[in-house]
Automatic annotation (TrEMBL):
This is Phenol hydroxylase. One of its GO terms (molecular function) is phenol 2-monooxygenase activity. It holds the Pfam family Phenol_monoox. InterPro entries: Phenol_hydroxylase, Phenol_hydroxylase_sf. It comes from Marinobacter adhaerens.
Length: 119
Protein backbone atom coordinates (compact mmCIF):
# COMPACT_ATOMS: atom_id res chain seq x y z
CA UNK A 1 0.00 0.00 0.00
CA UNK A 2 1.54 3.28 -1.06
CA UNK A 3 1.26 6.47 0.93
CA UNK A 4 0.74 9.91 -0.60
CA UNK A 5 1.40 13.11 1.30
CA UNK A 6 -1.48 15.57 1.40
CA UNK A 7 0.90 18.48 0.86
CA UNK A 8 4.16 19.34 -0.92
CA UNK A 9 6.63 17.20 1.05
CA UNK A 10 10.13 18.64 0.61
CA UNK A 11 12.97 18.31 3.06
CA UNK A 12 16.75 18.19 3.20
CA UNK A 13 17.85 14.61 3.97
CA UNK A 14 20.01 14.35 7.07
CA UNK A 15 21.75 11.14 6.03
CA UNK A 16 23.78 12.64 3.16
CA UNK A 17 27.40 11.52 3.07
CA UNK A 18 28.49 15.11 3.79
CA UNK A 19 27.02 14.74 7.29
CA UNK A 20 29.16 11.75 8.27
CA UNK A 21 32.51 13.52 8.82
CA UNK A 22 34.41 11.59 6.16
CA UNK A 23 32.78 8.27 6.96
CA UNK A 24 30.01 6.42 5.12
CA UNK A 25 27.26 3.95 5.90
CA UNK A 26 27.38 0.48 4.36
CA UNK A 27 24.60 -2.04 4.87
CA UNK A 28 25.57 -5.73 5.07
CA UNK A 29 23.21 -8.70 5.29
CA UNK A 30 24.33 -12.29 5.87
CA UNK A 31 21.81 -14.24 3.81
CA UNK A 32 20.31 -17.34 5.44
CA UNK A 33 21.20 -16.21 8.96
CA UNK A 34 18.07 -14.61 10.32
CA UNK A 35 19.44 -14.52 13.84
CA UNK A 36 20.29 -11.08 12.46
CA UNK A 37 16.85 -10.02 11.26
CA UNK A 38 18.01 -6.96 9.34
CA UNK A 39 21.16 -5.82 7.57
CA UNK A 40 23.90 -4.32 9.69
CA UNK A 41 24.42 -0.59 9.24
CA UNK A 42 28.18 -0.16 9.48
CA UNK A 43 29.89 3.21 9.77
CA UNK A 44 33.17 2.84 7.87
CA UNK A 45 35.92 4.79 6.18
CA UNK A 46 35.53 4.89 2.38
CA UNK A 47 39.23 4.24 1.84
CA UNK A 48 39.41 1.15 4.07
CA UNK A 49 40.07 -2.10 2.22
CA UNK A 50 37.34 -4.65 1.66
CA UNK A 51 39.43 -7.06 3.78
CA UNK A 52 39.37 -4.52 6.63
CA UNK A 53 35.59 -4.23 6.28
CA UNK A 54 35.36 -7.99 6.80
CA UNK A 55 37.95 -8.25 9.59
CA UNK A 56 37.21 -5.05 11.52
CA UNK A 57 33.46 -4.58 11.02
CA UNK A 58 31.61 -7.65 9.72
CA UNK A 59 33.30 -10.41 11.73
CA UNK A 60 32.77 -8.63 15.08
CA UNK A 61 29.15 -7.91 14.12
CA UNK A 62 28.34 -11.58 13.41
CA UNK A 63 30.52 -13.09 16.15
CA UNK A 64 27.48 -14.07 18.26
CA UNK A 65 26.33 -16.53 15.57
CA UNK A 66 27.72 -20.07 16.09
CA UNK A 67 28.52 -20.43 12.37
CA UNK A 68 30.54 -17.23 12.22
CA UNK A 69 33.77 -19.07 13.03
CA UNK A 70 33.25 -21.28 9.95
CA UNK A 71 32.38 -18.42 7.58
CA UNK A 72 34.98 -17.47 5.00
CA UNK A 73 33.57 -14.14 3.90
CA UNK A 74 36.34 -13.48 1.40
CA UNK A 75 35.46 -16.68 -0.49
CA UNK A 76 31.70 -16.16 -0.16
CA UNK A 77 29.20 -15.05 -2.80
CA UNK A 78 28.51 -11.32 -2.75
CA UNK A 79 25.91 -8.94 -4.15
CA UNK A 80 26.34 -5.19 -4.31
CA UNK A 81 23.10 -3.23 -4.64
CA UNK A 82 21.28 -6.28 -6.03
CA UNK A 83 23.94 -7.27 -8.57
CA UNK A 84 26.45 -10.13 -8.40
CA UNK A 85 29.78 -8.77 -7.19
CA UNK A 86 33.32 -10.10 -6.81
CA UNK A 87 35.19 -7.89 -4.36
CA UNK A 88 38.88 -7.15 -4.53
CA UNK A 89 39.90 -7.78 -0.92
CA UNK A 90 42.86 -5.41 -0.96
CA UNK A 91 41.19 -2.52 -2.81
CA UNK A 92 39.36 0.24 -0.98
CA UNK A 93 35.61 0.23 -0.60
CA UNK A 94 35.35 3.12 -3.05
CA UNK A 95 37.56 1.30 -5.58
CA UNK A 96 35.23 -1.69 -5.20
CA UNK A 97 32.26 0.55 -6.05
CA UNK A 98 30.95 0.53 -2.48
CA UNK A 99 29.81 4.02 -1.58
CA UNK A 100 27.54 5.69 0.98
CA UNK A 101 24.48 3.57 1.78
CA UNK A 102 25.50 0.69 -0.51
CA UNK A 103 23.80 -2.63 0.25
CA UNK A 104 25.96 -5.75 0.40
CA UNK A 105 24.52 -9.25 0.72
CA UNK A 106 26.85 -12.15 1.50
CA UNK A 107 25.94 -15.81 1.02
CA UNK A 108 28.14 -18.49 2.55
CA UNK A 109 27.43 -21.79 0.72
CA UNK A 110 27.20 -24.73 3.09
CA UNK A 111 26.34 -22.51 6.05
CA UNK A 112 22.56 -22.33 6.23
CA UNK A 113 22.03 -21.03 9.74
CA UNK A 114 21.81 -22.98 12.99
CA UNK A 115 20.62 -26.54 12.36
CA UNK A 116 20.14 -25.59 8.67
CA UNK A 117 17.04 -23.55 9.58
CA UNK A 118 18.18 -20.19 8.21
CA UNK A 119 18.42 -18.80 11.73
Amino acid sequence: MSVNALYDYKFEPRDKVENFNGMQLVYVQWAGHLMFCAPFALLVEPDMSFRALIDDALKPAVAAHPQSVKADFLEAQWELNGESFTPNADASLIDNGIDHKSMLVVTTPGLDGMFNTGY
